[in-house]
TrEMBL record, chain A:
Keywords: Oxidoreductase
Gene: korB4
Single GO MF descriptor: thiamine pyrophosphate binding
Protein name: 2-oxoglutarate synthase, subunit beta
InterPro entries listed in its UniProt record: 2-oxoacid:Fd_oxidoreductase, THDP-binding, TPP_enzyme_TPP-bd
TrEMBL record, chain B:
InterPro entries: 2-oxoacid_oxidoreductase, PFOR_II, Pyrv_Fd/Flavodoxin_OxRdtase_N, THDP-binding, Transketo_C/PFOR_II
Name of the encoding gene: korA4
Pyruvate:ferredoxin oxidoreductase core domain residues: 253-347
GO molecular function terms noted in the UniProt entry: oxidoreductase activity
Record key words, sorted: Oxidoreductase
Stated name of the protein: 2-oxoglutarate synthase, subunit alpha
PANTHER family: SUBUNIT OF PYRUVATE:FLAVODOXIN OXIDOREDUCTASE, SUBUNIT OF PYRUVATE:FLAVODOXIN OXIDOREDUCTASE-RELATED
Family matches, as Pfam families: PFOR_II, POR_N
Residue runs in coiled coils: none
Residue ranges occupied by any Pyruvate flavodoxin/ferredoxin oxidoreductase pyrimidine binding domain in the UniProt entry: 14-195
Amino acid sequence: MGKIFNRPEALTDAHTHYCPGCTHGVIHRLVAEVIDELGIRKRTVGIAPVGCAVLAYNYFSCDFQEAAHGRAPAMATGIKRVRPDLVVFTYQGDGDLASIGMGEIIHAANRGEKFTTIFVNNAIYGMTGGQMAPTTMPGQKTTTSPLGRDVSLTGMPIRMAELLSSLATPGYITRQTVITPKYINKTKKAIKKAFTYQMEGKCFSLVEVVSTCPTNWGMTPIEAVKWTEETLLPYFKLGEYKIPEE
Amino acid sequence: MAKVLMKGNEAIGEAAIRAGCLNYFAYPITPQSEVAEYLSKRMPEAGGMFLQGESEVAVGYMLFGASGAGERVFTTSSSPGVSLMSEAISYIACAQCPVVFVNIIRGGPGLGGILPSQGDYFQATKGGGHGDYHLLVMAPDSVQEAVEMVMKAFPLAEKYRNPVMILGDGLIGQMMEPVEFPEYLSSTPTNKDEWAANGMDTRKSDKPNLVKSLFLDPKALNDRNLLLKSKYDRMKIEEVCYEAYNTDGDYQALIVSYGTMSRVCRTAIDFLKAQGIEIGMIRPQTLFPFPEEAVSKASEKQSCKIVLSIEMSMGQMVEDVKLSVLGKRPVKWYGKCGGEVPNPEEIMDVIKEHI
């Protein structure tokens, strides 16, 4: 019987540092599968963020640059403007993209930069140890909101897909999740679409992926999936928010 | 090529194109906005790329990305803008990417003013961003020299894989002078395929390249810092540039001054000479590496009673002058930094006070 399931060529064989139950590994694999299927590994440059995915370059077998917190969209802009033939993607978390890098992502999207952003939203700062993020849910306990996020003091969680899709510039903006196989398949399709729009020179593309952080949420992986379904998804609604006109 | 009359800022933009740099990211700020205005038209004409970023913070990383992809790239800004870029400059220095920065200094701190100053000496020569790093810093005293330094900056940035900064001031940027452009420099970065994240296909390689500044292993980080230090040490041997003025004979005092300020000092020296008073001057053209040896030797002349660091800042370069003189002569500072350029008579009075 032949081998029917391989590691994508765009992934290395390194063990990841991600916590058990975290879905970064799944999302990495989907990006890698898409890169393989599109045959673009040798002309792809990824940009690693500051945050849990800072070491992403150890797991992908393509060229990589490493950004400062939030600045990946500016770096991607720099690369794509001087080398439009490259395929460029940023891989960013919610603290990176929705907090410190808010300006960079909005302006890159508004200029219609032809790169792809994979935005992993797990409603908390993972790498720095579970502090409140702009996407933290009302009442959610974190190390900097120990009594639960008080929205009268800190506002409501920012919905990036909705915010970015309000821009008049054409773009592909979608929100997906990877908590079950059905969603995983849909997310892969969205990532492939995002890369394809970039390669066709059509528009900026962003795939928000609602993810889990069992470690910092203080849950088992199964509880984390349940909490995502019951708490995150009703607020961070899945779907395609913006599609470029044909 | 014949001499043309050009504004400093526009000449700087033109020099970059003639140096083979066809990528320019920038954000407008007085007193250097004319560079962006000039290049917004000239870059497309020359087949190049200009993008106005949303902030200096973003521009810093656009430069980082473009340079990390192996392309020649530069920006121009002024003091508060360079402060915002300093975060990126630290990352760029650690990741060893060649980027050219032009800082047309205005008065500070804070919003300060928009007139000429040399108040960014510390920021340019001692770091500015976090961590142990240096830029190679050059300081022109004329539009002509600004052009020449911009054209030298790109190969130097690539030789060392290190950011290079041209430190001018509002006067250099705003004044018009006749300028002759050196021969077109068509060199291209030669070693970029070894390190740049420019796509494996581009360099026909099966090994991914990685441009990064994170070294979690303390030994690896120490090694990176030692590698950076070895480059700075090499710059100190190979790249020191200065001009000596009126130092052949005896002189009663030695002036150390750079950029616009040194032009005023030169006039003061000429006026004093007419009165029978001899004063020498060392004008650093590189501020990092600083011409320590030249200043030290010039200060040792028997007739030289005092060394004067004359700056449009509140005594920043004077620290490097003191480190060069090492107590062999008294070192005094004189300067102004509200945006007013001291005039030759004022400098003559200061010199006379001390000799």
